[in-house]
Design a protein that fits this description.
- The strands form two sheets. A seven-stranded parallel beta sheet has the order 3-4-2-5-6-1-7, sandwiched between helices.
- It has helices at about 10-20, 25-35, 50-65, 80-95, 110-120, 130-140, 155-160, 165-175, 190-200, 230-240, 250-265, 280-290, 300-305, 325-330, 350-360; strands spanning about 40-45, 75, 100-105, 125-130, 150-155, 180-185, 205, 215-225, 245-250, 270, 295-300, 315, 340-345, 365-370.
- The model is unreliable at about 390-408 (pLDDT under 50).
- The protein has two domains: about 5-205, Rossmann fold; about 215-400, P-loop containing nucleotide triphosphate hydrolases (Rossmann fold, 3-Layer(aba) Sandwich).
- It has 15 helices and 14 strands.
């Protein structure tokens, strides 16, 4: 199958040709015909499967053929970075089609607010927004959804994890009831199904099984005490070949503390978290993509909000709470048929989580021996149920500020 089989409008097809799109991915092949039939959709597909094109291309095809142009489509995404990424893709697809889009996201100064408010009032074909900023604009009296035809929720599971459920329900209350709603999510927990039941009408369900880690990723794990992680990281940086690294931690607070620790240790890393100003986050990502910065520290939001080739190593400071987040994290390396290394630090408490990851991917990840100077780590016994308050067997005091817990 090729994109020609969808019979897209010639202007849209020209844009696809110019971007080198020829063969659709599985999610595109399954979702595009259903969306063209104006059915609601609930789709489970992870980052990197081409889901943005899967939902935006059929919407753009229908939009081009609309006689009276108003605000047609609202895309809601969890983070600024993803909203910008979606908007950039729309701009590429629409190069020959004359379709306009506006990104709406938080941060910036009063001038940014005024620009976004004015742009929203003047209208565009497609708006890509984060929930918080859109709610604030709606509260200020900016309502332009009378003719809206499409609502798209991208990475819905991440939005609910970030506490945006009430915001989403409130935004939906501003929208026409007669619309097509498309919900895309990397995972499908009960809370996503509950949201879908509330805002979708007789949806078509599409499931793309979560991809296994790419064959080019050399996965490794070290079973360690928290007090051994810093020295182990230093060993890895000195002995493994690398040119760019992302280190993931499950909590924003851990990212901040690691940033301070690394600075004192002379490790040139940049922390990426939601407390930074928008301009700072954009500058860090731009510098990383341009190879001016080669070491990032971030949470799982970064694992879905960055698409950069040439990342040679991923380090998991802790085991992610959701096994599928592990696949997202390590999928930042070995992209475009390259190779890379993914190393995970597994402390005593996280062993059962790591076993769940191994169950998901279908094979055990090799456990590497710690360097002699670090001493022995804990035994890997994931079947043993542990309490977080247990005492270690003489390997030094627990570093409380590096305890591995999921984000709240």
């Amino acid at each position: 199958m090729t994109f020609n089989d969808f019979n897209f409008d010639s202007k849209l097809a020209e844009g696809l040709d110019s971007m080198g799109y020829t063969k659709p991915t599985p999610i595109q092949e399954m979702a595009i015909p259903v969306i063209l039939q104006n059915k609601d959709v609930i789709a489970c597909a992870q980052t990197g499967t081409g889901k943005t094109a899967a939902y935006i291309l059929p919407v753009m095809h229908k939009l081009i053929q609309t006689d009276h142009r108003h605000l047609n489509t609202l895309v809601i995404a969890p983070t600024r970075e993803l909203a910008q990424q979606i908007d950039q893709q729309i701009e590429g697809f629409a190069y020959f089609a004359g379709i306009s889009s506006i990104p709406i996201y938080g941060g910036g100064d009063g001038a940014t607010w005024d620009i976004q408010k004015k742009a929203l009032e003047q209208g565009a074909d497609i708006i890509v927004a984060t929930p918080g900023r859109l709610i604030a604009l709606l509260a200020a009296g900016t309502t332009v959804f009378d003719h809206l035809k499409h609502l798209i929720l991208d990475e819905a599971d991440r939005m609910l994890d970030m506490g945006f459920y009430e915001d989403i329900i409130k935004i939906v209350s501003y929208l026409p009831k007669e619309r097509q709603t498309l919900l895309f999510s990397a995972t499908m927990p009960p809370k996503i199904r509950a949201l879908a039941n509330k805002i979708l009408r007789d949806p078509q369900e599409i499931n793309i099984a979560i991809a296994k880690p790419a064959a080019g990723i050399d996965q490794q794990a070290y079973v360690v005490y928290d007090s051994q992680k810093e020295k182990l990281l230093d060993h890895i940086l000195k002995t493994y070949p690398w040119n760019s690294i992302i280190l993931f931690a499950s909590r924003k607070e851990t990212v901040k503390k690691l940033d301070s620790v690394f600075r004192r240790a002379g490790i040139a890393a940049k922390a990426f978290h939601s407390d930074l100003e928008q301009s700072e986050r954009e500058e860090i990502l731009r510098a990383f993509k341009n190879k001016q910065v080669n070491f990032l520290i971030g949470t799982d939001v970064l694992s879905r909000g960055i698409d950069v080739e040439g990342i040679s190593m991923i380090i998991n400071w802790d085991v992610p709470p959701d096994p599928e987040d592990y696949v997202h994290r390590i999928g930042r390396t070995a992209r475009a048929e390259t190779t890379g290394t993914a190393i995970t630090f597994v402390n005593e408490i996280d062993q059962r989580r790591f076993q769940a990851i191994e169950s998901l991917i279908g094979y055990p990840v090799p456990k590497k021996t710690l360097p002699l100077e670090l001493g022995e780590g804990p035994a890997y016994t994931p079947q043993t149920k542990r309490k977080e308050s247990f005492k270690k067997n003489g390997r030094g005091p627990r570093r409380k500020h590096f305890r591995s817990r999921p984000s709240r």
